[in-house]
Every structure is written in C-alpha cells, then in structure tokens.
Amino acid sequence: MLAEIQVSPRPSGTPDAKYAYVDAAIAVIQASGLTYEVGAMGTFVQGNPDEVWALLRAVHEATIEAGAEGVQSNIKVSETADAGGPTISELITKFRA
C-alpha cells in the first residue's frame, strides 16, 4: 500500500520552532521502519495496509500530542489486489535529477 499524508496543524509550530508540530509528525514516520519520502507538501509511506493505516493515525495524532491546538490531515491511499503494486522508488526515480 502507498499513502501520502499532509498534516496541517494549527498553529504549525512554536515561536522558537516554526514547524515543530509537523516535525513531530515526521518523526513518527521516521521511527516507523516503513519506507517513506518526505516532500515539501506531504510525505509518502509504503508498507502493508495494517501498518500504513496505523501509521496514518499516529502521524495525525502526533501533532496534537506535540502541542498543536488542532490539525487537519489530508491523505491519499493506493492499494492493489496483490502485494506487487508500485513502490515509491518506482514512481519517482526517473524524475530525480
């Protein structure tokens, strides 16, 4: 399964750390052990469906746990009937300079 998540916490961070709550969300992804790619407007993750769905919830909740007053998360999910669907690398490698 592939998923992209974009968290939009309110506010995005603290006066001393402008993106602190987004950074907290990304830290959860980094600690997950799943394959991921951080982008400017969201992060892609790849793994089995149970792991990905659990991670999406944990990422969303991490912003609140880090101190945000609220959060809106936008997700996109792609899954194939077999486990052989495209990987993050297959979809983006040819576009890397």
Describe the protein's architecture and organization:
By secondary structure, the chain is α+β, with helices and mostly antiparallel strands. It has three helices and four strands, in the order E-H-E-E-H-E-H. It has helices at 20-31, 49-65, 88-92, and strands at residues 2-10, 35-38, 43-46, 70-78. The chain has a four-stranded antiparallel sheet with strand order 2-3-1-4. The longest helix is centred in the middle third of the chain and has 17 residues, at 49-65. The protein is globular, with a radius of gyration of 14 Å. 22% of the residues are buried. The model has no long low-confidence stretch (mean pLDDT 94).
SSE order and pairing:
Elements: E1 2-10, H1 20-31, E2 35-38, E3 43-46, H2 49-65, E4 70-78, H3 88-92
Antiparallel strand pairs: 1-3, 1-4, 2-3
Helix pairs in contact: 1-2
List keywords for this structure.
about 100 residues; alpha+beta; about 25% strand; four-stranded antiparallel β-sheet
